Amino acid sequence: MTTPEIDTPETGITPGGTSGAFRDVLSKDHARRGKPPLHFVDMTPAQRIEKAAELGLPKFRVKQLANHYFGHFDVNAAEFTDFPAAKRDEAAAAFFPQLITEVTRQVADEGTTIKTLWKLFDGSLIESVLMRYPTRATLCISSQVGCGMGCPFCATGKLGLTRNMSTGEIVEQVRVAAKMMRDGEVAGGESRLSNIVFMGMGEPMGNYNSVLSAVRQISAMPPEGFGISARNITVSTVGVVPGIKKLTAEGIPVRLAVSLHAPSDELRDELVPMNKRFNTTQVLDAAHDYWLASKRRVSIEYALMRGINDQAEHAQLLAKRLNHYGDDWAHVNPIPLNPIEGSKWTASKPEDEKQFLEILHRAGITATLRDTRGQDIDGACGQLAAKER
User: Active-site positions?
Assistant: First the structure.
């Protein structure tokens, strides 16, 4: 990999591999940009009260704002009938600046999958994907503009990293989707948003503080949060070991997903550049420690690529590596590769996918072939490239 001749950005706990072989891949658009406007969810409780006081408002008004935001998914202060009319516009500007603006909305799977392209305050583009299933509604959200991990088969990874997103920019994706579900904007009628996966654009562990703040507010009960159970939130990583360890210590029962994609260091070095910084043994050890601490089974994400990592020997080695720990700690999600434009990587043959699963099952590994929702609108795993159409 060519090292970009540019300062490494602030990326939470992944400082660009300054002490290892990995270095963040930066977007050509990367720059030291200004920070997004401070939003209600970016503020501590004390900051909210202080901001309210600046507007001449008593602190109980902060709880009213929280009820509107988290309880009703509402930021239109002009309609807050329980709020002083003379202060509504000021409160909206101070607490609810518009952080994400819809550019396009694409629909697939008979209206049950919606991919939204968002423009941020600085013109950056990100995407989120809302997917309705018979028993749940899942939102796949972005945590960075682009991604610096450089995985060659992933459209987002090919963009490079532009910048981290603020907590407000992350949480706003959730608020809008929750409102869409409540208002019946997704095929199937009115319902509720039940699951969140940090599997959109970006490496969540590279923006750890904002992601964890978002997780806490998504999972807290109203009026402190949206009340989506932490057990229904998945945080993914390509294997940033310090982030996994830090998440383990938090004691929040989210599900951890590790994008492994290869059972050996030799192959994973090619597919996941971060492996040169934290190898498969370090990653699996940290993931197993997460299971021991949380008793939440870890998801092992594995994109099946024709002739690359999908043969019998790969499945056998993967089973051996996982069974090494001696307990039922992992659930493997083989994912049929979603091809990206101009890529040499292609999806596995159906017979190879079937064989891969059978080998894992015979070895006692729980494994489920992942559904590829939204593929025709480039909304499936690995396809998010934030293109304006």
Answer: 127, 381
